[in-house]
């Protein structure tokens, strides 16, 4: 099946007074129709920068300095402003990290939905907009009559579900969710993700799910890209990441979060702190923190090793029994 989104060798730099800081470095992955692709990594590794760049929502000092982004056969980096305006929401929409705060607390929900329909030339009739809004709210489990309320009258979980309904308003083919439930408690978090999964089955969209919580991600995603210091260092199916990750960073990240099911285990964590992107070392970026690092790791950049659709970048990958 052809990929819906094809990201190839994308680089995004922040242009600072001290020079360029590369926050996304030669990142490549693809998302097929109906697939849920996860992007996991510690804070500051470049996940949000990448998500914004995919929709060309990045703002200076961020600059896309290389690579290609092809969505449904169209080159995103070549789109003019009008094409981009339609592309966002209609083809690809995003639920932001602090999505709950994206709603204007003093404007009724129905008016906020109406603005989207009007802006995208779907309808300028308030009655039709209300019908559409009612359907969308029902989809995410909110009683339609609540559209007449103000967002400040909603709980955090309800606001988040309302934002997801908005993101789905124009039936996009890809939903980008950047830490969509981080501010919510675990029970609400899980019920929202379950809802999103049901909606995906019903409506058939694909998802790019971004989080630092790998346990949650392994439950929710088909395929996972593990990001470290601006690079994807391993890409594999959720079950491979769970049972036999090959990159020591994937292994460490997996063991830093309690499993959602089964026995509680001792959490190991990863020693040290994330790399300062202004100071990229010569060899492997993870070597300083890696329990498996050898001399070569400090000297040579590890090559990308392919295994079918999967890949990893490590001189001394872990074997299956390690996971
Ligand atoms: N305006 C800026 N100027 C220079 N560097 C920046 C700027 N904004 C972000 N960065 C750097 O880009 C890197 C990537 O940031 P980004 O927010 O994409 O990471 P993230 O993985 O999404 O983190 P989080 O989960 O905390 O949002 C960080 O290391 C950050 O220091």
TrEMBL record:
Domain ABC transporter: 5-254
Classification via InterPro entries: AAA+_ATPase, ABC_transporter-like_ATP-bd, ABC_transporter-like_CS, Oligopep_ABC_C, P-loop_NTPase
GO MF entries: ATP binding
SUPFAM superfamilies referenced in this protein's UniProt entry, alphabetically: P-loop containing nucleoside triphosphate hydrolases
Keyword Cell membrane: no
UniProt entry tagged with the keyword Nucleotide-binding: yes
Keywords per UniProt: ATP-binding, Nucleotide-binding, Transport
Pfam families from the UniProt entry: ABC_tran, oligo_HPY
Protein name stated in the entry: ABC transporter ATP-binding protein
